[in-house]
Amino acid sequence: MTEEDFHTLVLENQDRIYNTCLGFMKNQEEAKDMSQEVFIHVYQNIERFKGESLLSTWIYRIAVNKCLEEIRKKGRQKRSAHLEDIADPVIQNKTPDFFHPGLALENQQRAAILFGAIEQLPEQQQVAFTLAKVEFLSYDEISKVMNKSVSSVESLIHRAKQNLQKILKDYYEKI
Amino acid sequence: MKKSDLDKEIDLTLSSLDDIQKAKAPDDFLTTLTSKMIFRNEQKTWMRRAKYAIAAMIMFAIVNTVLLINSMSSDREEMLDSVATEWNLKAEGY
Predict the structure, then answer these.
(1) Which of A11, A107, A172 has the CB atom closest to B10's CB atom?
(2) Integer distance in angstroms from the first to the last C-alpha of chain A?
(3) What is the ipTM of this complex?
(4) Of A46, A162, B44, B85, which sees the most CB atoms within 10 A?
(5) Is B23 in contact with A113 (Cβ distance < 8 A)?
(6) In B, which residues are within 8 Å of A7 by CB distance?
(7) Is residue B11 part of a domain?
(8) Which of B4, B29, B32, B39 to mutate to probe the A interface, most A CBs <10 Å?
(9) Would you tell me which CATH number, out of the four given (1.10.760.10, 3.30.1840.10, 1.20.210.10, 1.20.140.160), belongs to the domain A3-174?
(10) Domain-by-domain residue ranges, chain A?
(11) Residue B94 — very low, low, confident or very high, per pLDDT cuts 50/70/90?
(12) How far apart are CA A101 and CA B90, in angstroms?
């Protein structure tokens, strides 16, 4: 891949990959870092792309995997610091602090709470819901990114919504 | 919170992403990406050079050790020889 081709590929895909990473990482600096890692991976592994799916689907898949990997890593670090967390009541009752730049002001607080709730979903539900609600991918596109059938994606999103309702109910009952 | 208020708040929260605008990548995205790639490439080159240098140093140390051991064993033989000659210990047959 020539430098020029790579630059074109980045310019064509940077916004959607950045937006996807932001949906998962919930931090603009981390989303930027993560999406750059995605493009470096694409550059180093472009010969592995067989053309069986759209290039954008392949890049989305890399982005999702990289973000999940990073979230798992952060989860492990959090768990190892678990004892400190228990001792600190502020962390236990912390309010959601991520404000997506693409949201109207009046929705930001609620969306921050929703992003916090999405984090508590099982991984697959989290991926399907984020791709649908933040990146507006169709169920068909999500099924290709996640390597699942459309009906599995429908079911994942349905269960995600049910779980989110429960999580939000708990959240609002406590405050 | 009353149940009806609670349900309303949950619905509003669930639909809070409905009007979300997609976030755009920062303006310096490609520039910083390019410099990150150049930096990593240079780092890789230096790492490779460092590996070669370390390998060369290890080889040098091994060769030196072998030579040192060899010279020590030949010195020892010479010393034993000279001691044997001095004390007339060399057997010339029984």
Answers:
(1) A172
(2) 54
(3) 0.82
(4) A46
(5) no
(6) 30
(7) no
(8) B29
(9) 1.20.140.160
(10) 3-174
(11) low
(12) 96
What is the interface size between A and B, counted as CB pairs within 8 Å?
A: 96
**Residue carrying structure tokens 């929260």:** B13
Per-residue pLDDT of A93-139, as tens digits, reads 455 678 899 999 889 999 999 999 999 999 999 999 999 999 999 99
Residues B20/A170, Cβ–Cβ less than 8 Å: no
Residues of A engaging B, defined by a Cβ cutoff of 8 Å: 7, 10-11, 14-19, 22, 28, 31-32, 35-36, 39-40, 43, 100-104, 107, 110-111, 113-114, 117, 133-136, 161, 164-165, 168-169, 172-173
Q: Which domain covers residue B56, as residue numbers?
A: 40-86
Contact at 8 Å (CB) between A109 and B17?
no
Whole-prediction pTM: 0.79
